[in-house]
From TrEMBL:
It comes from Rugamonas aquatica. This is DUF6916 domain-containing protein. Residues 52-134 form the DUF6916 domain. The lineage of its organism: Bacteria, Pseudomonadati, Pseudomonadota, Betaproteobacteria, Burkholderiales.
Length: 138
């Protein structure tokens, strides 16, 4: 087989395989994006106003399969304007219960379940404190 014939033959094969890859890519781009579970879409993060209404209310945090109760102690707003909403939440977990700093599922009846990064912030009369910082951009 001459070199020219070989290049033309293999070029055609490579070109057709590339087209099938492009077709698969096109299908992938037009298909709906699946979340963690089929049909699950992460809820939008609640803003500081939603949390202000929930101060002193109980939340459930899920460090595993079993939930743990915690209380929202305060909402500290850094700024709220047309550009965004920056704030910190302080939670308390009963004395004797601790969480490692990390991402947890946090749930409340009014705002649903969200994944939040909780960082240990010390101890106090209400128990162990945890802080969650938010910077929501509009």
């Amino acid at each position: 087989m001459e070199r020219r014939t070989f290049v033309l033959a293999t070029g055609g094969l490579l070109g057709s395989s590339g087209l099938s890859g492009a077709a698969e890519l096109s299908k992938a781009r037009s298909a709906p994006v699946a979340g963690i579970g089929a049909g699950n879409v992460a809820p939008a993060a609640a803003g500081s106003a939603a949390y202000l209404a929930l101060v002193q209310e109980r939340f459930n945090v899920y460090p595993g399969n079993r939930g743990m109760a915690m209380t929202l102690l305060s909402v500290k707003r850094s700024f709220v304007d047309g550009r965004g909403d920056q704030f910190s939440l302080t939670f308390a977990v009963a004395a004797g219960q601790t969480l490692a700093s990390g991402i947890y599922e946090v749930e409340h009846a009014s705002i649903g379940k969200q994944s939040i990064y909780l960082q240990r912030a010390g101890d106090g009369p209400e128990g162990t404190y945890y802080r969650a910082d938010f910077n929501l951009l509009n």
